[in-house]
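Re: the request from the purification team.
They wanted to know what the chain is likely to look like in 3D before they choose a buffer screen. I agreed to run a prediction and write the result into the notebook, where they can find it.
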Amino acid sequence: MLRAGHTVGVGGVTVLLAAALLFVGEERASAQLCTDEDKILVDLGGDSVEYRCPITGPGGAGGPGTGGGGAASACDLALVEVKGRKDASTSRFCEGVYACFINFPSTVYPDPEDWPEGQPTEDSVYTYKACYGPDGARAYGDWGWFVPDEPSVEQLAWQAYGRLVLPEFSLAFNPPEQAVIFVDTWWWAEGASRDPLRGTSAGGVVAIAEPNRMEVDPGDGSGVLGCPFVVNESKGCSHAYTKASTRGTAAAANGSAAYPARARLLYNVRFENNGTPLNLPGLPETIETEWVETPVPVTEIQAVVVE
């Protein structure tokens, strides 16, 4: 349940916006007119934001959620059950027949230094509230101050998961610069480490990613290789090409045709709560890097026997 706080408009506060969405959905146009000072910042989707007049519900002078002088009705919170971000805490609550939710911290204002003046209490957070009607359509929304519930341990675990920082690496291979058919090509993740990755704490909950394996796609159509977690030159992960890369779709540094080889690193994830192992159903158990590509030119070597 969300404890009461009072809402304020963004007004003239100037902030730097991250190119990210607080939530995704259809934005209903407001039929009312308002001054520039009354407009609020709304995420439109497609990495775009816009100042718009607030969308008010049918609550009359009492405003959405007050019932406009009538008795408040229970809403269907299932309408917002899947709303919210996995890497943030989410509060879901009813305002009359409207199902509402907030994320905190918000994507647009994650740093309290960017919040406007007038924080009513130390526990108040500045974020966006979105509410949906019984038909599932977006009804109204506004930026404001809210005092959220204390996040659950599961929510803290998801926040901790989002704070894991995976390494940047390049896919290295030997023979260097050019592979040879029927000769093993060795692969490794240059720049990565076999040390566990430890994220920053989220309310005492920490996510720890431990190296599991490396996956390599040589780019020749042979499929993905499951390899040990190799970060130094060795034969631990190898593949022998059977055809030269004359028809490869990638280009080497010298412009010659090459195979589009790629690799990614996979980790097992576990959690600790104030140093004690945390095991909850539904928490993520793995995390992986994005695929990293590198062009690999492959050639043939023909031998001539001279008597």
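For the purification team: Helices lie at 153-162.
Please add any questions underneath this entry.
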